[in-house]
Design brief:
The complex is a heterodimer of chains A (253) and B (207). Chain A is 33% helix and 22% strand. Chain A is of the alpha+beta class and 253 residues long. Chain A has a 5-stranded mixed β-barrel with strand order 1-2-3-5-4. In chain A, strands 7-6-8 form a 3-stranded antiparallel sheet. Chain A is elongated and about 65 Å long. In chain B, strand 1 and strand 2 form a beta hairpin. The longest helix of chain B is centred in the N-terminal third of the chain and has 17 residues, at 43-59. The radius of gyration of chain B is 22 Å and the shape is globular. The chains are: A alpha+beta (253), B alpha/beta (207). At the A-B interface, helix 1 and helix 6 of A face helix 7 and helix 8 of B.
């Protein structure tokens, strides 16, 4: 059966690359199609009807024609450009952190509607509360979960025993939390306190970023959760998260 | 002798094609066409092209003040006493300076960043000429009244403008951003919501 020559989809722009005199290639995370690299012909011309549509962090409705190498954007309509996220340098850095990780954890033409919904929810959450840290940590953990890399948080990954309410250790290389009795060789292990483990479990169990409770988490626990999640993200990404330096520079988590 | 990547092509010609292919916007076929042209022109013209490349590479330097590429520092614009010393316009690239000069509507001086803050590409303030801008503004002899931030109206251009604005908050300097809205000859129907909302916000009275 041959594929239809055109298709419609909703997608979130992740990045763009200028190509040729006035074209763009835009990486778009589409709900039903996964990550797509689409060519927008003439989109850099001031008078183009596509001008301004492909800035990163824009939710679009698209009509796309199949091409031989890259599919071609036939029509684009902005659903939202997340203006609150782009209001200043700090929130823009947060939005681009989401875009970088979605880009890094998604594969071309591999649909992941749950990850798409998570990314859009997180951008709305950043817009609604530009300084809150918890929505970003929720995004980190759920990104791992919805990409198939959720670390084990309830049982020791070595002996399989249910974790006792005490201090634990975390080793992303073996899949998550370890009890104090287990210590597999040649694995980088980091300490994980009970409060930090409880926050991670809360992030795992909460249905959406909008349902996160207002918690007053001590700075040390917040740093521990952040450090644990960053270690897991960088392990699976196999590189540093580039936009993290900008979040740090903006004095935001 | 044949080139490894261009079968049936002499090694020296293949090397020229590969070097041209490295240039931005030059695909493999364009590289072949340009290389074929170069080998057909007289030797003096080829030498002139080669000399121009090396002269630009060896002779150019950054202007101490505006960081534009110049043959001598300060550049013609910074050294010109007729230019308004109370205004500095910050642009991303040298090409943007040229575009603004073509308008003949701006008579102040410039600062060329040679890039833009880009979290996705790991480009931070130290990777572009932002520290030199802040250093320049600290000069006590500076009569500067207005800093016009003319970075592109893109996500990264706006983030760079906001970074500059934050950094200079409280200095008393007037910091402005180029207006934005609908392009001449454009169509309101096809404008994206950000452009249209900013065009509405920046509407002006009909004289």
């Amino acid at each position: 059966m041959t594929l239809p020559r055109t298709y419609r989809t909703a997608g979130l722009t992740l990045r763009k690359t200028p190509v040729g005199e006035a074209d763009l290639v835009s990486a778009i995370f589409a709900r039903e199609h996964g990550k797509l690299e689409l060519r927008a012909r003439g989109a850099r011309r001031l008078t183009s009807k596509l001008m301004g549509h492909f800035e990163p962090l824009t939710l679009l409705r698209l009509s796309v024609a199949r091409g031989r190498t890259l599919d071609i954007v036939a029509e684009a309509e902005v659903v939202t450009a997340f203006p609150e996220v782009k209001a200043d340098y700090a929130t823009t850095a947060r939005g681009l952190y989401v875009a970088e990780l979605v880009d890094g954890f998604s594969a071309l033409s591999a649909p992941n509607p749950e990850l798409f919904d998570l990314a859009v929810q997180t951008l709305h959450a950043i817009g609604n509360n530009p300084t809150a840290e918890l929505p970003l940590r929720y995004f980190d953990l759920q990104l791992l979960a919805r990409s198939g890399f959720l670390p084990e948080l309830y049982h020791c990954v070595e002996c399989g025993e249910e974790l006792e309410p005490e201090r634990h250790r975390f080793a992303v290389g073996v899949g998550g939390t370890l009890c104090l009795d287990c210590g597999p060789p040649d694995v980088v292990v980091r300490s994980l306190s009970l409060p930090a483990l409880k926050v991670l479990r809360l992030l795992h169990r909460t249905e959406s970023a909008g349902r996160l409770p207002a918690l007053n988490i001590p700075a040390a626990v917040r740093d521990e959760v952040h450090g644990t999640l960053t270690a897991a993200l960088q392990y699976w990404l196999d590189r540093q998260v580039r936009s993290q330096a900008f979040l740090d520079a903006a004095k935001l988590p | 002798m044949v080139s490894e990547y261009n079968p049936g092509t002499a090694r020296s010609l293949g090397r020229l094609i590969e070097e041209l292919h490295r240039l931005p916007g030059i695909g493999p076929k364009s590289a072949q066409r340009i290389a074929d042209y170069i080998v057909q022109i007289p030797a003096e013209e080829a030498q002139s092209l080669s000399d121009a490349i090396m002269a630009a590479k060896d002779g150019l330097l950054f202007c101490d003040q505006c960081r534009n590429l110049t043959d001598a520092s300060p550049c013609d614009i910074c050294a010109n006493p007729q230019r308004n010393r109370e205004q500095i316009c910050v642009v991303e690239e040298r090409r943007d300076l040229v575009a603004l000069e073509r308008t003949r509507a701006y008579r102040g001086r410039y600062h060329v960043l040679h890039g833009v803050l880009s979290p996705l590409n790991g480009v931070g303030p130290e990777d572009i000429h932002l520290p030199q801008l802040f250093e320049r503004l600290q000069d006590s002899d500076n009569p500067l009244q207005e800093l016009i931030v003319a970075t592109n109206p893109t996500l990264e251009g706006d983030a760079t403008a906001d970074f500059i604005n934050r950094r200079l908050a409280g200095t008393g300097l007037r910091i402005t951003r180029l207006a934005r809205g609908l392009p001449v000859g454009g169509s309101l129907e096809f404008a994206d919501e950000t452009t249209l909302s900013r065009a509405l916000a920046g509407r002006s009275a009909l004289d």
